[in-house]
Amino acid sequence: MNLAILFGGKSSEHEVSLVSASSVARNIDQKKFKIIPIGITKSGKWYLQSDEELARIQSDPNAAFKISEEPQNLVSVIPGGKSQALLVDGKPLTVDAVFAVVHGTFCEDGVLQGLLDAAELPYVGCGTMASALTMDKEMTKKIWNDSGLPVVPYKTFKRADINDSKRYDQLVEETIKEFGFPLFVKPCNAGSSVGASKAANAREFSMALGEAFTWDDKVLVEKAVNAREIECSVTGNAVIQSAEKECGQVRSYTPGEIAPTHEFYDYDAKYNDPDGAALKIPADIDGETAKKIKALAEEAYKALDCSGLSRVDFFIDKDSGAIYINEINTIPGFTSISMFPKMCEAAGLNYKDLITLLIDEALERFEARKKLLTSR
Questions:
Q1: Per-residue pLDDT at 241
Q2: For helices 137-146 and 128-135, what crossing angle results, to 10°?
Q3: Residues 6+ apart with CB under 8 A from 361
Q4: Are 285 and 316 within 8 A, CB to CB?
Q5: The whole model's pTM is what?
Q6: Integer CA distances (angstroms), 287 to 150, 166, 245, 279, in order
């Protein structure tokens, strides 16, 4: 089977994607899948990468993809092209499925998924709608609220609010009065804690809002919780799961815990500081709490009609013991030592088999969708 692996992208998480995709390329079952590596530049253009680059990645456990931008290797996409939808130098690449190991804006937010749907190519991960919803933290929280799931209290600031000074001052005053300090401030549509800050006073709150608005036109402000950070991996298809096929069944895995050494688990702690956090798998929680976390993770996943894979992040309040669903990440970090695959491994699903499971689910979902009527 010819599998296109997409990596890079226009988002702030470009470099993270290069590392995750390299790990997939090294650990995939090479007897089952022939890899077609395609790099997406920071300007958004797609380029087919050489066999030599793939060989370099597969032979070096520490290597990360580098994107070569040879003009003759520019990739174009033909809507409705199916397995011949990707063209290079006017000639089709035969692609049976796509594994998009990309993160953030233009990649994880439904834009890429919509393009692949238009091309009629099967792909790993959530569909267009679920990808768009889950990328928007406000929309995600609204759906979870409507589903009766526990989320941290929040308010949303929009660009229109800061353009109206009276409205902006009113929102700031209401937020401080209702939540107090400290507050967490983050862009609604960004990942890896990019643009996120913790504010301990009014001055820091103003600065945090300014930083977040450089990344997005909507900003989420949350009441800070003195919390432990717990994560849980989920796979399967929330809409068409079938008891007959394992790959489509919604399943949660062994929860893990992140113990940051920084003020909070920001981008620097995640990617620049090797001692930014201690990762514990399994999480140091009792069996009943672990069972509840897994059940909530599956409910959160199903409420958003997710498919493929997602990592659901939780807070456990250290003072009250209350559990809150924090966020969901539909294309989480995917190196062999990332939390998502490690939590799956702790539950008995190894990395290579996890990759195969996700591809099998993508193909099953694609075949099921083909059976639906689109016209009369």
A1: 75
A2: 100
A3: 124, 235, 236, 237, 247, 248, 307, 308
A4: yes
A5: 0.92
A6: 20, 50, 28, 19
